Amino acid sequence: MGDGGPEPAESLISDARRRVEERAERLLGPQRVVKINDPRALRALAHEARQRVIEVLYAEQHARTATELAQMTGLTPSAMSYHLRALEKWGVVERVVDSDDARNRPWRAAGTSVQIDTSEAGETVRDVMADQMLGALHQRIRAHRSRPAADRVGSVTLSAGDLWLTPDQAERLSAWLENAILDEHESGWRNEPAPGRVRMAFLWSLLPDPLPGQSPNPTSDGTGSA
C-alpha cells in the first residue's frame, strides 16, 4: 500500500517510452542519463555557452578540446576551460583521462543524455533556461533567412498547430519522433560530421493549450472540468 507520496518513477513510464528506451539501448548501447535537479547546478547550466557545450558533446558523443569548443561559441580557450570546469563540478562533463596530450586534454559528455528537473529551481532559473533556448532558436531563424534558397532545402523554420490528444496519444507522438531518429541509426547513420552534412538543430515542444476558462486536465469526456 502506498503512503500517498509520489509514485515510483518506473510506474510512470509508458509502454511507448519503455519501448523507445529499450530500442535505444539495443542500437546505441547502454544509456547513461545524467540527472540534474540541484538548483545550484541549474543556475550553473543557465549560460548560453555552457548550453552549447552540452548540446554538442551529448549529441555527438565525441570528445572535444576546450579550443575546439571555444571556436563553436566565440569564446577564448581559457574562458571555455572555465566553463568546462563549472560543468565538471556538477557531473555534466568529464575529462578524457587517457588522452596523450595532458596539457590539452579533451572533454566528453558524462552520459548519453541529460535529464533536467527544474521543479525546485524557482521561476527565475526556469525562465532563464527557456529564454536561452528560444533566443538560440531566434538567432538560427535570422541566419536562415539570409541563406540561398538551395541551402534551405530540407529545413523547417517553424511549424505549429493544434492537436486534440489523450495523454497516451501525446506520449506516442513524442516516442514516434525519437523512433524516427533511431530509424536513422539503424540504417547505419551516426550523429557526427561527414561530407555533405550540415548541423541541423531541432526544438521539440508538445504542451497543453487549454481554451480560455478550460482546465488543462480534461475530464473523461474530453471537455475539461468546469
State the gist of this model.
The protein is mainly α and 226 residues long. The protein has helices at residues 15-28, 39-45, 48-60, 66-73, 77-89, 123-145, 167-186; strands at 33-36, 93-95, 107-109, 113-116.
Description:
The model is unreliable at 1-11 and 222-226 (pLDDT under 50). The chain starts with 14 loop residues before the first helix and ends in a 40-residue tail after the last helix. The strands form 2 sheets. Strands 1-4 form a two-stranded parallel ribbon. The protein has a two-stranded antiparallel ribbon with strand order 2-3. The chain has helices at residues 15-28, 39-45, 48-60, 66-73, 77-89, 123-145, 167-186; strands spanning 33-36, 93-95, 107-109, 113-116. It is mainly alpha-helical and 226 residues long. It has 7 helices and 4 strands, in the order H-E-H-H-H-H-E-E-E-H-H. The protein has a domain at 14-142 and 163-186: Arc Repressor Mutant, subunit A. Helix content is 43%, strand content 6%.
